[in-house]
Amino acid sequence: MATKTAQGTEVRKDDETEEAGTAEETQAPEAADAEAADAEEGQEAEEGAEAGAEDGAADPAPSGIGQGAGAVVSAALGLVSLSGGWIGTVASAREQLIGQLRTSSSASVATQLKEVYGDAWHTTALWAGLFALTALITGVVVLARPAFGAPGRPQAAWIRSVAWAGVSLGVVGLILAVLKYSDALLALPSAG
Hints:
This protein has a two-stranded antiparallel ribbon. The chain has helices spanning 15-58, 65-83, 85-102, 109-144, 157-181, and strands at residues 2-4, 10-12. Strand 1 (2-4) and strand 2 form a beta hairpin. The termini are far apart. Helix content is 74%, strand content 3%.
């Protein structure tokens, strides 16, 4: 069925077009409501992200990088204390050279042993002890750090493990250094 409008155009109204128009009219408000809800959710998400960014900028969470680095340094210093390290070797060689320069060729064998080899051995033990003590202190500081940090934020397990390794190596290195320095371990041979 067709009708004419005031402008002279013919508008056709069939039963099918009326049903389609009715269906479109009922779907259009539902789609509009869904789009509005999506827009509101997107706006709320943006506001939440902005608020989270502001909170994150004001109170950043510690990442534990410093503690991890401290634990690794502690373990490395503990290993250096056991091996003597380059500084201990150079200091020992320097002390040996000084002992040779100070000792005359007419000095007794015991004096020569003490000045040339004994002092060098003690210097090596002293440097190993310094490395061990530094490893021990660094490891203890890393392990004690969470007590002074953010409450409820546990320290990573690998950081604790490596820090404990550094403390253990530091203790062993310190004991060996004291034993070497006191001549309880590998003392100089007697000259007589």
